[in-house]
Amino acid sequence: MKHIGEKLEGKNVALISAHDDDHATHINAIAAGHDVGALFHELVLTRGTASTHNFNRPAGWVAEGNRPTEGRAAAAYLGLVSIKHLDYPDGAVAEHIPEAVPLVQEWMRERKIEAVLTLGGLEDHGDHRASAQIGRLAAIGLMAEEQRRIDILEVMHKGGGEWMA
User: Which among 70, 142, 145, 164 is least buried, having the fewest CB atoms inside 10 angstroms?
Assistant: First the structure.
């Protein structure tokens, strides 16, 4: 398999995320992409206001706005070129796939996206699976419509603390 940087070199890359802090899972890919001139744009489908069950956070932690605030700060630190929210309900992204795909396609078209990076290999959360499906469908639709290539890369857990795309 090629090094992730070879897939991202000089490209406009879309991060299709379910939640504000999902780009943290892409840190190694973002670093490798920056090294070869990739520009990263993130489209976040929810504000992550309902999902705290994985973190044992105190009640009200998300309601106070910490997850979105930390997500924006991390995106700036990681050098993401742009970030946009679609504000679908957290925990219910799958219910909005048909309406989200054309919006994501238009967003990708405006940014001249050449590669899409999703959390498609993560089965831990329905929103991660749905956001990956939206990213794949949007990219496939644009490829067919515009007769151009868009690489689709999906982060997945290999086990033993290792990740791959």
Answer: 145
Tokens found for residue 46: 């929810």
List per-residue pLDDT tens for the chain, 165 residues long: 457 788 899 999 999 988 887 777 777 888 889 899 999 999 999 877 665 444 445 554 444 456 666 677 777 778 888 888 888 998 899 999 999 999 999 999 999 999 999 877 666 678 888 999 999 999 999 999 999 999 998 876 565 545 555
Whole-model pTM: value is 0.82
Distance in Å from the first CA to the final CA of the chain: 10
Cα angle 158-162-165, degrees, rounded to a multiple of 5: 65
67 alpha-carbon distance from chain centroid: 15
Phi, psi dihedrals of residue 20, rounded to the nearest 5°: -55, -30
- Residue partners of 145: CB distance under 8 A and separation at least 6: 105
Per the listing, tokens 């919006």 go with 103
